[in-house]
Write a structure and sequence with these properties.
With 135 residues, the protein is α+β, with helices and mostly antiparallel strands. 41% of the residues lie in helices and 19% in strands. It contains 7 helices and 4 strands, in the order E-H-H-E-H-H-E-H-H-E-H. Bound molecules: adenosine-3',5'-cyclic-monophosphate (CMP).
Length: 135
């Protein structure tokens, strides 16, 4: 069993897509083992996205993630890291296939509804950032 960190970003919350998004992970057999809603601080979001510091979209990304409520989720299941990313679809909305969350609902490069850890190391690091009370 593997664990991964998923975020439903402020656009997903604003657009009332929380249930729809979680349903898709659960349908694939991924189990929600921790979940919370929060208004993340700039510090938390900067730590989460520190690999993107200096990129042209970084400031926009930090402003977006701190613009509203975020749902942080730990999913557990077989190949959870890969499965969650496949369910999310390609980062760029224009490359995301129909049937994926971004393929079906996203139309902006920054506001792309969801995040999921991209490796075992990222999952460990990100679960500690968003669920410091547990990990
Ligand atoms: P995520 O999968 O959370 O990883 C980094 C985030 O940065 C990404 O989703 C988008 O929200 C954002 N992002 C990545 N590339 C771009 C880009 N070229 N322009 C704007 N935002 C981007």
């Amino acid at each position: 069993m593997e664990r991964t960190l998923v975020l439903i970003k402020p656009d997903g919350v604003r657009r009332n897509l929380i249930g729809e998004i979680i349903r898709r992970y659960e349908m694939k057999g991924l189990r929600v083992i921790a979940i919370k809603s929060l208004y993340p601080s700039e510090e938390l979001v900067m730590e989460h996205y520190k690999e993107h510091e200096g990129k042209d979209f970084y400031e926009r990304l930090i402003n977006f993630l701190t613009s509203g409520m975020v749902i942080a989720i730990v999913l557990e299941g077989k190949n959870a890291i890969k499965c969650a990313r496949i369910i999310n679809g390609a980062t760029k909305y224009q490359d995301a296939l129909p049937g994926t969350i971004r393929g079906d609902f996203a139309f902006d490069e920054t506001e792309n509804l969801v995040h999921a850890s991209d490796s075992l190391e990222s999952a460990e690091r990100e679960m500690k950032i968003w669920f410091s009370e547990i990990y």
